[in-house]
Amino acid sequence: MTLNLNHPVLSALLPVGLLIGIGFVAGRLRFIRAESVRDLSNLVFLVLAQALLFRTMSAVRVERLDFGAMALYHAVAAVLFFAVLAARGFDSRAAVLALASIFSNTVMIGVPLVGLAYGEAGLVQLFTLISTHALVLLTLATVVLELLSARDRAREPGAAPRHLARTVARAVRNAVIHPVPLPIIAGLLYAQTGWGLPPVVDRPLQLLGNAFGPVALVLVGVTLAQTAVGAQLKGALAIAAVKTFVHPMLMGLAGWAAGLRGLPLAVMVVAASLPIGANVFLFSQRYRRAEALVTASVAVSTALALVSVSLAMALVPYLPQ
Questions:
Q1: What is the DSSP code (8-state) at residue 2?
Q2: Which of these, 29, 47, 75, 285, is most buried using a 10 Å CB contact count?
Q3: Contact 185, 138 (CB under 8 A)
Q4: pLDDT of 103-151, one tens digit each?
Q5: Does residue 3 lie in a domain region?
Q6: Distance CA 130, CA 15 (A)
Q7: Containing domain of residue 269, as a range?
Q8: In terms of domain of life, where is this protein from (predicted)?
């Protein structure tokens, strides 16, 4: 029996594993030292991600979006997010781990995988989800994390009490004026003008955005080399299992119950079965919460996705019509 490296699942996941592996070797050999990781994280989070998110959203026309499957996907993710948040103690660390349980690698892995498996029609479905994926889920996590952080600060000795409405308003403001949602919102608003990006602007943004996925994954590998994975393995397996198996199972059941069928259902279930996206790693770095555990979870979920994605693609066609 020969291994088919052109299989859609393998051809999408193996490059991700190789990039993480390259970063791991670079970290072990100290090509990138531990004290440089924070600066690289800021580069990816504050420069490369900005370019990718703004450029992607600058081509999205609201009237062309099919909101049905996308809204259901986000609803399922929100339910799972709050379930994990409650199970893990309703604190800021739990918010980061809850995000890891629902945020898929829709761009780096999802785009080539769905393109190979379902063609252009599948990509249209996936791009509709991608257009709001980071905006909805990262904003949700940011609002919750800001609220929990405000609660923690209010409990500190000598802290002045804050009115709930003011705390909520501050959290929403911090969620919007934030390195991830802000370029998404700006890009979406710009897209509605219909002007398009001039080549002199579009080309640099494209180059920066193209660097996001590879550099972020290499950075995951570097951090992994500096993390005691053995100590994090049990926790990482639990988070990765929720992300790659529980999430798609809930999406499939909810989609089927809501009357979603065929290609839209298949793409949404496959998207839910994808491993944890690099944005979660950057999110944990940004807020300095559960960094080692999230790093290990990204790597473990990438390995588990070889099974979860294959199962999703194989089983969805057998759901009752």
A1: -
A2: 285
A3: no
A4: 998 887 888 788 878 887 888 788 888 878 887 888 888 888 878 877 7
A5: no
A6: 20
A7: 8-318
A8: Bacteria
